[in-house]
Amino acid sequence: MDITVIKDKIAFSKDRPHKEVISDIEKAKTVLICLEAGQSVGRHISKSEIALFALEGKGSFIIDGKENNVEKGSIVVCEGNKSHDMKAESRMVVLQVIAK
Prior knowledge:
Elements: E1 18-24, E2 28-35, E3 44-46, E4 50-56, E5 58-63, E6 66-71, E7 75-78, E8 82-88, E9 92-99
Antiparallel strand pairs: 1-2, 2-9, 3-8, 4-7, 4-9, 5-6, 5-8
């Protein structure tokens, strides 16, 4: 078991969202996503269920075309085979957990 201090992994890029895999184990993958204001990840579909945790900032998680406003402390769970995206209103840090 490894312990990761999330605040030590936070990094931003002015060109595109910064993504870093925190863990990749048999049943789940955890990815830290850091977005500058105005950045988005881009709509895509995953077969797996995904939990999106807003750790910092404000923005929206767009699940199957429905925009959900989120801020620090929010969580949204996306069922498998649904489109999803995220968009930052302010600097935003998101922890994404993908079930395998």
